[in-house]
């Protein structure tokens, strides 16, 4: 403390002075010109006349606090933590609140330990370039109706939430159980409160008495609001709203109309799920800032939502601002419209400049716990046979450019169903954690795929194998390719076979970002040539067809599940 005071009083040299900056003050919403003095990784003063060991000329650029993502699943990028950081940090990101529920559903808590350790090994002049605040997933599995690679019950949650590894409890997707007062779920939340840690939320469409009850559980955030009115109601009841700007889901338009000069401090920016191609091409939170400002939101509000608001929501008292004693996490940008980042400082260390990281990640940390996670009982073509009894078969239709599904029916004569040449494909979810042999079978209408099969080991949230095709033989072969690769994206057409390995828990690749982007693009384009409609992302839409927390009809390894009825339904009605 004395050293900080002496540097602030200019009795001692600071470690760094960032000169000639226009400093955005998140407390006042104003720009002020001056120099930023840094000592021991903290800002000690703003003004003129500081002497320092090192100087950096901002050349009139705007200094904003380092950006903090309020809610993200790193796994959704398909990148290793190291490769992800190489893309995100140069975009101004210096902190993330990360919920690793994808990898924990596969590998258990060992998956979370892997994420944290991989990030912690990054270093620039002895400084880790990114703060990672890891949430303990609250829903492993997401529902009790399917097979996942791990189960975190309330007893294990009570133990794990007490570890320094976990900053809080991840999004409580099982909001129906919260509203019903389910004791198992409430014990997880209470164990978090006892340790004074935050609980993140997930409550789409919940309002009125239901939302009052959800808030009574002490949930502090939500990223699933479906309208401006829902945002207003939740903010009025004390909730922080996370504005999501991901690759497939974006609620900027819904949230923007609910924001005003009084309540903007209750809004946070997050990406939730962002793929590698989007991250490389558009950016991370800098992309969210551009989109918000382009939508008409005041840039002063937008920057606060990605900095101070996040820090205050989560009790990060030393982060989110450029002010004395705050950590010197700083991004230099050209202007507050395009948000092009020219330099990034973490605790006063220059960790990225001109779009390039100044740290390296040449070696990947890959413990045994996250490798070889695909364990499948051998399958054959006959396992995908559907035999009708002469009734009508349920099929799901996927909303264009969305994740919701509706239910339709296909009249079928008695006997084996043949889908070739029709508007239907077979859908299968193959259990891949314990080699149980479970295979859920269903139908999808209107996807467009013809002449083979595609499949992926990313299937939210239990991440079994999801296979789509019009050939039983091709579907069986896709399973074999995925097993041999340790997970990934696979395709079998009449002309070729292809597989891109996701060797980290069947979710992420240890390859460089450029290879991940290129290979996922190639195999996606091949699937597109098999007829998949433009309104669907060939593989990633599949990844959500087994997510039994989004309406209406979803397929699990244990069968068809109707979210509206909240029960299993038969494939055929006779």
List keywords for this structure.
single chain; alpha/beta; TIM Barrel; 2 domains; 9-stranded mixed sheet; 16 helices; 28% strand; globular
The N- and C-terminal alpha carbons lie at a distance of 77 Å
- Helix proportion: 10-25%
Stretches where pLDDT is under 50 for at least 5 consecutive residues are none
Please identify which CATH superfamily of the largest domain we are dealing with.
Metal-dependent hydrolases
Mean pLDDT: 95
Structural class: alpha/beta
**How is the main sheet built?**
9 strands, mixed
Number of helices: 16
Tell me the strand percentage band. Answer: 25-35%
Mass-distribution shape? globular
Q: Return the CATH architecture of the largest domain.
A: Alpha-Beta Barrel
Just give the CATH class of the largest domain. Answer: Alpha Beta
Radius of gyration: 25 Å
Description:
- The chain is 25% helix and 28% strand.
- Strands 1, 2, 3, 4, 5, 14, 15, 16 and 17 form a 9-stranded mixed beta sheet that branches.
- The relative contact order is 0.13.
- α9 links the parallel β11 and β12.
- It is built from 16 helices and 31 strands.
- It folds into 2 domains: 291 residues, Alpha-Beta Barrel (TIM Barrel); 203 residues, no CATH class.
- It has 574 residues and is α/β, with parallel strands linked by helices.
């Amino acid at each position: 403390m004395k050293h900080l005071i002496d540097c602030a009083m200019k009795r001692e040299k600071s470690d760094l002075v960032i000169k000639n900056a226009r400093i955005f003050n998140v407390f006042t919403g104003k720009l002020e010109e001056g120099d930023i003095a840094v000592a021991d990784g903290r800002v000690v003063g703003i003004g003129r006349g500081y002497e320092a060991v090192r100087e950096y000329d901002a050349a009139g650029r705007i200094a904003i606090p380092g950006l903090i993502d309020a809610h993200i699943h790193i796994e959704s990028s398909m990148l290793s933590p190291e490769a992800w950081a190489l893309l995100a940090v140069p975009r101004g990101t210096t902190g993330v609140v990360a919920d690793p529920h994808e990898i924990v559903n596969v590998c258990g808590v060992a998956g979370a330990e892997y994420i944290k350790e991989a990030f912690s090994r990054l270093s620039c002049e002895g400084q880790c370039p990114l703060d990672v605040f890891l949430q303990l997933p609250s829903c492993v599995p997401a529902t009790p109706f399917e097979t996942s690679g791990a189960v975190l019950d309330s007893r294990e949650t009570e133990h794990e939430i007490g570890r320094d590894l976990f900053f809080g409890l991840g999004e409580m997707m099982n909001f129906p159980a919260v509203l019903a007062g389910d004791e198992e779920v409430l014990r997880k939340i209470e164990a978090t409160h006892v340790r004074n840690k935050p609980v993140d939320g997930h409550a789409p469409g919940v309002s009125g008495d239901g939302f009052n009850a959800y808030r009574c559980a002490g949930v502090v955030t939500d990223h699933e609001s479906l309208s401006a009115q829902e945002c207003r109601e939740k903010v009025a009841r004390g909730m922080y709203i996370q504005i999501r700007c991901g690759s497939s889901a974006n609620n900027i338009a819904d949230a923007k109309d609910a924001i005003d000069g009084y309540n903007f401090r209750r809004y946070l920016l997050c990406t939730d799920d962002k793929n590698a191609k989007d991250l490389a091409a558009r950016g991370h939170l800098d992309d969210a800032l551009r989109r918000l400002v382009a939508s008409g939101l005041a840039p002063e509000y937008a920057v606060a939502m990605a900095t101070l608001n996040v820090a205050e929501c989560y009790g990060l008292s030393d982060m989110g601002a450029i002010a004395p004693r705050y950590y010197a996490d700083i991004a230099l940008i050209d202007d507050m419209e395009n948000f092009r980042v020219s330099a990034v400082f973490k605790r006063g260390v220059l960790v990225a400049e001109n779009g390039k990281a100044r740290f390296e990640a040449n070696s990947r940390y890959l413990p045994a716990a996250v490798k070889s996670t695909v364990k499948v009982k051998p399958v054959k073509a006959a396992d995908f046979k559907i035999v009708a009894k002469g009734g009508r078969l349920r099929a799901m239709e996927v909303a264009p450019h969305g994740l919701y599904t509706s239910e339709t029916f296909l009249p079928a004569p008695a006997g084996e169903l043949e889908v070739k040449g029709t508007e239907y494909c077979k859908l299968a979810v193959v259990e891949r954690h314990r080699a149980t042999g479970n295979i859920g079978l269903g139908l999808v209408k209107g996807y467009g795929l013809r002449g083979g099969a595609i499949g992926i080991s990313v299937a939210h949230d239990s991440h079994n194998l999801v296979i789509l095709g019009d050939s039983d033989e091709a579907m069986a072969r896709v399973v074999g390719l995925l097993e041999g690769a340790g997970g990934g994206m696979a395709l079998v057409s009449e002309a070729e076979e292809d597989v891109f390995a996701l060797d980290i828990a069947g979710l992420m690749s240890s390859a460089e970002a450029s290879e991940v982007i290129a290979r996922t693009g190639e195999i996606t384009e091949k699937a597109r040539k098999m007829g998949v409609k433009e309104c669907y992302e060939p593989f990633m839409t599949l990844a959500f067809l087994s997510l039994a927390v989004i309406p209406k009809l979803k397929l699990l390894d244990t069968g068809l599940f109707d979210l509206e009825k909240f029960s299993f339904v038969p494939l055929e009605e006779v």
